[in-house]
Amino acid sequence: MAYVLPTRFSSSPISQIRRLSMKYTTLIFFTTSAIGLLSTQAINAANWPNKPIRLLIPFPTGGGTDAMARMLCPRLTEATGQAWIVDNRGGAAGNIAAEITAHSAADGYTLLMGFSTVMTVNKSLYPKAQFDPIKDFDPIIHMAASAYMLTVHPSVAANSVNALVALAKAKPDSLNFASAGVASPLHLAGELFKNRAGIQITHVPYKGGGPATASVLAGESQLVFGSMTSSLPHVKNNKLRALAVTGLTRSTLVPELPTMNESGFQGFDVTSWQSLVAPVGTDKAIIARIHTETSKALATSEITKLFHNIGYDVTDTTPEALGKIIKNESKMWEKIIREAKIKPD
After folding, report:
1. Which helix or strand (DSSP H or E) is residue 70 part of?
2. In a 3-state reduction of DSSP, which class is residue 36?
3. Is the pLDDT of residue 1 over 60?
4. Least C-beta-crowded within 10 Å: which of 13, 192, 260, 282?
């Protein structure tokens, strides 16, 4: 009767040696590949930049985001020795530029000028968007921010935010708030105000911030969270009454005006902001270099003055701080959008 080897010894010693050899060969191959990849990344980071850097702008030419990019890029070109090219890819509320960047090589040569709504709002508004602002990007720097200004028509019997809330509670649905359109920052600020104050005011969307402000000037709407640039001239001419700004700190443009936070709305922070982000996986050394050079540019009096002229204060944060801002604001706006049942036009 033939003797049968136990299962674990059923193969010949030669077969076992071959299998072990293949396993070790595979392990060596992947280890070597990983080491090679890390070495290549290190070399690329050390040589960065050796060709032009493309900065995608999520809006057409002529707007504030485009203006800031064109102010900044010549300084970064001088600092890095390679051209920084502005690439306007407007459309789909900024999603087109974000998607292109998210799917680009993580080599430091394609970056996104990350506008606040693109980085914190759009994922909740457009679930089918082909990018995730938290998972698909490495944050670099939060560069500048502009708070909005809560203004009312002079006929509104309120000289403070608290008085406005009391008026709205006494007469529900009697006040209209204008915005630059459904899901615009002005609309979202109004919905956050409604939510936090527990009041009923009616949203009236217009096609842009200018028409929204004009509607309050005409008395068609009673209040608006307008941009500094569109609101401030009318406040100075006493055609609108300013009650507060929406940033956590007072604006250098109107330092006498309290914040919503100071007016009793703890943590009320709604700003239009600009940032730089890179495709996820970009070498940390490259991120650090871009952050350093951008921070130096932002520190110059020339850039500070230019940014002030379009209503922005320089912020200049660390990559880690920008990452927290994106996460926290994304969570806040997801809640507001869901509860207010906001759908993009």
Report:
1. helix 64-80
2. helix
3. no
4. 13
Residues 151 and 230: beta-carbon distance below 8 Å: no
Band (10; pLDDT cuts 50, 70, 90): very low
Strand 137-152 and strand 241-245: pairing?
Answer: antiparallel
Degrees, nearest 5: CA angle 291-137-141: 25
Task: Tell me which of 12-16, 48-52, 306-310, 337-341 is least confident.
Answer: 12-16
Backbone angles phi, psi at 136, to 5 degrees: -100, 0
Q: Which of 79, 105, 73 is nearest to 281 (CA)?
A: 105
Best CA proximity match to 296, nearest among 285, 308, 304, 286? 304
Which stretch of 1-10, 27-36, 88-97, 111-120 has the lowest confidence by average pLDDT?
Answer: 1-10
Q: Domains in the chain, please, with CATH? A: 51-146+271-340 (3.40.190.150), 147-245 (3.40.190.10)
How far apart (Å, rounded) are the C-alpha atoms in residues 25 and 17?
12
Q: Tell me the per-residue pLDDT of 127-172, one tens digit each, with 9 for 90 and over.
A: 999 999 999 999 999 999 999 999 999 999 999 999 999 999 999 9
Closest to 265 (Cα-Cα) out of 165, 154, 123, 178:
165
Tens digits of residue pLDDT in 14-49: 555 566 556 655 555 555 555 555 555 556 678 999
Alpha-carbon dihedral sign for residues 306, 310, 315, 320: negative
Q: What pLDDT, on the 0 to 100 scale, is given for residue 23?
A: 60
Task: Pick 242 or 42 by higher pLDDT.
Answer: 242
Maximum CA extent, the chain: 110
User: Strand ranges (DSSP E) for 153-264?
Assistant: 176-179, 202-205, 223-227, 241-245
Cα–Cα dist 134/103, whole Å: 14
The chain-wide mean pLDDT, for the chain, equals: 90
Buried b (16+ CB within 10 A) or exposed e, 57-69: bbbeeebbbbbbb
